[in-house]
Amino acid sequence: MNSRRMQVLTLFGVAVVLFLGAVAGHAGRREFWLTPPKSDTEEYMVPPPPFTEGIFPCSECHSGMKPDPRRRVLKEEHTNIQLKNHAEHERWCLDCHDLKNRDRLRLVSGEQIDFNHSYRLCGQCHGDKYRDWRMGIHGKRTGEWNGRKEYLLCAHCHNPHNPRFEPIALKPPPERPENIR
Amino acid sequence: MSDTETRNERVFRLSRRKALKGMAVGLGALALPGKDASAALWESFFQKNFRELSKSEIQDVVSRLEKEYSATYGKPVKVKTTPPMEGVLYGYGLDLSRCVGCRRCVYGCVTENNQSRDPQVHWITVLRLSKERGVDLEHSERYYNPAKVPEDGYFYMPVQCHQCENAPCTKVCPVQATWKENDGIVVVDYNWCIGCRYCMAACPYGARRFNWKKPGLPAGEMNPDTHFMGNRPRPVGVVEKCTFCMQRTREPDGKYPACVEVCPVGARKFGNLLDPASEIRYVIENKRVFILKEELNTQPKFYYFYSV
User: Fold this and answer.
1) Hey, which end of chain B has fewer CB within 10 Å, N or C?
2) Confidence tier at B80 by pLDDT (50, 70, 90)
3) Would you state the pLDDT for residue B45?
4) What does the pLDDT average to over A67-95?
5) Hey, of A170, A178, A179, which one would you mutate to test binding to chain B, going by the most B CBs within 10 A of its CB?
6) Which residue stretches of A29-152 are H helix?
7) Which chain B residues are Cβ-neighbours of A142 within 8 angstroms?
8) How does pLDDT run across A60-78, given as a tens digit for each residue?
9) How is the beta sheet containing B288-290 ordered, strand by strand?
10) Which string of b and e fits B35-63 if b means at least 16 CB within 10 Å?
């Protein structure tokens, strides 16, 4: 009687261990269709920044000039750049462009970043949009739904100096049923 | 045996029943393909429902279709029969606060999915709704045509197949030519469809389209990367619909659907509902989500949301 009970208990024990093992194994397995976790240092695939033709590198002109940190209205160069719809009274060029290295942008912390990391600059104020953008919710993301994804920089859709999205032309409306023969 | 009986036995007498039988057989024979019809015609005539085909039969059907399409469009055409991926349930998000109603998705879809150009067939309908009324479909406008979009006071809502979990269209099909696959995509077997259009009447989203004429598809614009239940060229008299671009998405390195790739404002989101890290799950968990005609319990896998 006692040995019978022992047998049953042993069997039960083995079954429990097997079941737990299976559960742990299943949880530990990474399925190929799941999005791999992204680390903080990982780069986002972006196309080159949308520079006006021939404007970059900025140092080509600026290297020979003496930097002037005073806030002023530019009269000779860059007169086509108008700060609009973007807190233009609070900000000017050198809040985002670095004074010493003209080929880089500048964060509030003083850190210099490349133009193709400009999303970090925008993300300083627009944290909610930055969070959504990294998840692929704000803005356009192309590539593979279960693999490599390509992002666009903020500046690809929003002019950084006048960020409001401009109205665009549209495609023709569908044919009315009475005209389809 | 009397003379009358003998005559009755020997003389051919045409009864009404015999005449009707003969006429039926004769008409039936006329409906069959003639003897100089190609073998492909016979094969397509006897082709079974896709779900009843064996692996070798699928091979035969695919090679027959590829040959036929390649000859018609003058370039090598691929017809895939890729089955659903395990662990994948496709979900689609559309950001109503971003869509500007530019209709690029409509034409991107036409190009990718080989819809008929003439007569015109569109799988996506973009509705213009006034902000004052909200989602009021009775006052929606689909033929809006200003110079630029978005217009003041309006928002835009593209409608396409919602790939319902509880799909009304598949229930009404009298021949089971349309069904829901395991990855949630509702598909049509164009060879099995009899064109009765019950599914179009059943669909609460008006997402299905009928080929009233032989689709006018110029060879130069034909997309040769096709799927059997997706964007392969359709015959006349069958119903077609959005399949979440299954020829693109149902691959190990699956591209986004064409409408997602073409949207200039990034209002369209696509992903695996079973993957907790996918963007569609992020949308459902963090944004205000709205399901069109939720009260009908169709359980769409197409979610409208507001990102702001």
Assistant:
1) N
2) very high
3) 83
4) 88
5) A170
6) 59-62, 118-123, 127-135
7) 256, 260-261
8) 889 888 888 888 888 888 8
9) B268-272, B90-95, B302-306, B288-290
10) eeeeeeeeebeebeebeebeeeeeeebbe
* Mean pLDDT for all residues in chain B: 93
Note the pLDDT tens digit of each residue in B14-48. 889 989 999 999 998 887 766 666 677 778 888 99
Q: Please state, in angstroms and rounded to a whole number, the distance separating the CA atoms of residues B112 and B116.
A: 11
- Residue whose C-alpha is closest to residue B78's, from B63, B88, B91: B63
- Kindly report the backbone phi and psi dihedral angles of residue B305, in degrees, each rounded to the nearest multiple of 5, phi listed first: -145, 165
Q: What pLDDT is attached to residue B174? A: 96
C-alpha dist (Å) from residue B75 to B108, B109, B243: 21, 21, 24
Multiple choice CATH, B90-306, 3.40.1160.10, 3.30.70.20, 3.40.50.300, 3.40.50.620: 3.30.70.20
Amino acid at A44: Y
Percent of chain B clearing pLDDT 70 (strictly above): 98
Strand blocks (E) in A59-160: 105-106, 112-113, 141-143, 149-151
Is pLDDT of A105 > 90?
Answer: yes
Residue B201 has pLDDT above 60, yes or no: yes
Tokens standing for residue A24: 């742990």
Contacts of B254 in chain A (CB under 8 A): 144-147
Q: Which of B96, B282, B289 to mutate to test the interface with A (most CBs of A within 10 A)?
A: B282
Whose tokens are 């299976």? That residue is: A22
> Which chain B residue is nearest to residue A171, measuring alpha carbons?
B103
Beta strands in chain B (DSSP E): 78-80, 90-95, 125-130, 148-149, 154-159, 178-180, 186-188, 209-210, 225-227, 239-240, 268-272, 288-290, 302-306
The encoded tokens of residue B186 equal 């509702």
Q: Do B270 and A145 touch (CB under 8 A)?
A: yes
> Is the ipTM value over 0.90, yes or no?
no
Tell whether the model's pLDDT for residue B111 goes beyond 50.
yes
- For residue B102, the tally of other CB atoms under 10 A from its CB is 23
* One-letter amino acid for residue A32 of the chain: F
Nearest residue on chain B to A143, judged by CA atoms?
B255
* Best CA proximity match to B225, nearest among B110, B105, B79, B84: B79
Q: How far is it, in rounded angstroms, from Cα A130 to Cα A122?
A: 8
* B106 pLDDT above the threshold of 70: yes
Token pair belonging to B217: 């598809």
CA closest to A141 among chain B residues: B266
- How distant is the Cα of A46 from the closest Cα of chain B, in angstroms? 15
Instruction: Give the pLDDT of residue B246.
Output: 96
8 Å CB contact of A171 and B88 = no
What secondary structure letter does DSSP report for B259? H
